[in-house]
Amino acid sequence: MSESTRMMLGGLVIGIAIMIVLVMKTKVHTFIALLLAALITGLIGGMPVADITNAAGETTVGVMTAIKDGFGNTLKSTGIIIGLGVMMGGILEVSGAAEQLAFTFIRVIGKRKEEWALAITGWVVSIPVFADSAIVIFAPLVKAMSSVTGISVVGLALSLACGFS
């Protein structure tokens, strides 16, 4: 294994560790922790901070450009879907429609089968909608169903996620 490969793998391990510590121990927002981890990973991996152009006109991409381009490409492919999903989830939550859906699912599937109701819903919804968008849309439903039934949010969310996958 070459020295540059070792540096990159070491930077990756250190970046992941820093992100975990920042999120779990210091309660730094996940987005900020991700940006800092990406910056540290790139720097330890041997990337320059900014783009460098040599005399021959060849450009070495810097960490800042790599982070910016990676974020931009991610938003380009899913940003609009996620944004609309967040808006739809907000509408469901504020209008009370999420709670009404929770009552309807419980009534149709039956009491004490809420996990199955969400798993089936997730399976049906995942056919036309990306799972990441569906999670954003149905998060208020999971919260509403948890408050109505007293079942753990985590258990209901896992049931829904299993249905999505």
Short note summarizing the structure:
With 165 residues, the chain is an all-alpha fold.
Question: Would you mind describing this structure in some detail?
Answer:
The chain is mainly alpha-helical and 165 residues long. The protein has two domains: 3-76, no CATH class; 78-164, no CATH class. Helix content is 76%, strand content 2%. The chain is built from seven helices and two strands, in the order ααββααααα. It has helices at 3-24, 30-44, 63-95, 97-109, 114-125, 131-149, 153-164, and strands at residues 52-53, 59-60. A two-stranded antiparallel sheet has the order 1-2. A hairpin with a 5-residue loop joins strand 1 and strand 2 (59-60). Helix 1 packs antiparallel against helix 2, helix 4 packs across helix 5 and helix 6 packs antiparallel against helix 7 (153-164). The longest helix has 33 residues, at 63-95. It is elongated.
- Termini gap: 37 Å
Q: Please state the structural category.
A: mainly alpha
Question: What's the count of strands?
Answer: 2
Report Rg. Answer: 22 Å
Query: In total, how many domains does the architecture comprise?
Result: 2
Question: Any key phrases for this structure?
Answer:
165 residues, 2 domains, 2 strands, 2% strand, two-stranded antiparallel ribbon, elongated, mainly alpha
